[in-house]
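ENTRY TYPE: paired fold submission
RECORD: A
CONTENT: sequence, then structure tokens
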Amino acid sequence: NANIDMVTNAGEPVTRYSSADFSGVGPNSSEQVSYDGAAGKRIYIDIVNRQNAALRYTLQITPELTAAAVVRADGVVDVSDTSAGSANPSDNVLPDGTYGVIPIGNVVVASIAPAGPSGFSYNTYIVEVTEALNDLSLELRSLGDDPEAADLVVQRGAVITTYDDADYNSFDTRPPRFSYDSPEQGSIYYVDVVNLSGQVVPYELRATSAGLVVSAEQARDPEAAASAEVIAPSRGSSLVSELIPGQHAYGELAGKLGVATFHTYTTSVPAGTVSLEIELNASHDLDLASQAEDAISDYLAASVYFANSLHSRERLHVDNPPAGTWYIDVVNSLGEGVNSSYTLTITVR
């Protein structure tokens, strides 16, 4: 029941509490705010502790969207002609609504609720292109008996209002997969997973890219230009591969009971390097570790650089790193059943 505050702002990070959309600074232990017409907006939320003690809190975000809030064109499909295979319901069954941003290279695994009175149900996601990419691919795979039980709809730049006017829908095409060539940096894509059946449908939605547009500097290095990304082939602990500075590594790491799982990468740091920077962005709270010369056996060893905050983004910065091979571990210590996708990048200067 201690006093803890919440401050929110739409569109931009909170810079001053007095000018934010909502500032719950006051003698309360509970704060609540709602946004009408929030589709497509990014809401920034600050939790504020003004006391001299650690405080535990619960933050709940509830999208109050219904099928009626997103109007679909009549006659897109004939529901009576649609037959989905049996699905295996999971604990993560999502009703109609918008469920956030999928970082490129990541995967969402969930289940979509059965079609409602409108004849369908939908889960909406957002994909942002933050770098100059060669392409953007969006792929949906149903995880039940019928691998094509759910449908995919994609629209660039605007919230989906009608399925037949979207850039792509999979109602008449299989498999449900769509790609954009040379997507504009800064562009936003809205992605709907659609269920026309009366069954819960588990699914896997991936947002991937063949890699960054190769810069002039990379083009002078044939090895770097040959491959702009690395994809970890397994969810279990493994030595993945070498990662060239400037590349992106994408993977998914499964949690395991009682032990930390890991994906290990290596990188070569040239002589004269001023700084080594390693950045990890994940869908859950993964950790990041690195060490020169030898594979890591103890994350708490003095020779190991270890970032293990309670955030989904971790960063390691090493000044004047010794030349040679560096080992990098992406670590999942979240336990059984908690899988996390991630993107890993390395920069040397």
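RECORD: B
CONTENT: sequence, then structure tokens
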Amino acid sequence: MQINLCSAAFVMTLLMMPMLAFAQSRSSQVSTNPYASMPWTHQGGWEKLRLDMTTVQAQDALGSPTTMEPRYPDQQLWQYSTHTAEGHWITGWVRFRHGAVAAWSSPSFDTPYINVPWVQPGTWNLLRLGMTTKEVEETLGSPTALEPNTLNQQYWAYRTRNSSGNWRTGWVRFTHERVSSWSAPPFGN
């Protein structure tokens, strides 16, 4: 029995079509991000966060979290995570204590922060020991992460990637809501 190569290729193509259609539908599902329109997937949503915001105010700023976990009777952790079209994960979180924002860490976005005061080297020169949290926020802008260290201390982190793709991070430490130390991010490429 002699098989025509063209017929064999045609039969193989027919057999493979359902698998190709399935693979194509899976790849379109993977590249479609259901969270792309949510405020938390963009820097602007995180810049609206403030300490002591209620859960309703935080949800207005960021949208619904992808995961909510109770931590202790008085704490809750909201996580925000998804993948980009390129397959990179972006993840951020907000911790609530007694129903109010107590700490957060925004996702590490691939695009650098460029229109915020803290990415300008001269802005960090304006910091002074004893400044209030409000004065620092007016000077540097909103932090990308905020973490209480102890009852009387908290750290504000400012991080992004520079034009070379390297991480640039600065931080401010507050003791009793006053600046007690800081470190400017490295500037340059």
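NOTES ON RECORD B: Confidence is low (pLDDT under 50) at residues 3-31. The radius of gyration is 24 Å.
STATUS: closed
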